[in-house]
Write a structure and sequence with these properties.
mainly alpha, Four Helix Bundle (Hemerythrin (Met), subunit A), about 110 residues, 5 helices, single chain
Length: about 110
């Protein structure tokens, strides 16, 4: 997976404390996003999935997850256009895997700055 560290550095102003805070926030958000999408999918609440995708899009952007930024945007657009993807469960599983991989990458990155 590729990461855009430049945007993360811009958003954090290169401040290690702020970097750690952003990482902590993302770590707290991942399970909320994942469980929220899984629950909404099980209930057929696609508007809720679109709302979560919208929120998650901003978070993944901070960590340079551009592919996921696009996937989440497309998920949101598809649902708004009443084109419900059949692969939401697989999508959320891959998102969870990639998000935690990204989280670990950025934790290691910040730790190496010291």
């Amino acid at each position: 997976m590729e990461y855009n560290i430049a945007y993360f550095l811009d958003v954090s102003f290169g401040d290690k404390a702020l970097m750690r805070e952003l990482i902590q926030i993302f770590e707290e958000q991942i399970p909320v996003f994942v469980s929220g999408i899984k629950k909404a999918n099980a209930e057929g609440d696609y508007k809720q999935i679109a709302a979560i995708a919208h929120k998650a899009k901003s978070s993944v952007a901070v960590f340079g997850m551009t592919a996921w930024e696009e996937k989440l945007k497309q998920l949101q657009v598809d649902i708004i256009n009443n084109q419900i993807p059949q692969n939401i469960e697989e999508l959320v599983q891959q998102f969870e895997k990639d998000a935690y991989e990204t989280l670990n990458y950025f934790k290691n990155y910040v730790n190496q700055l010291e």
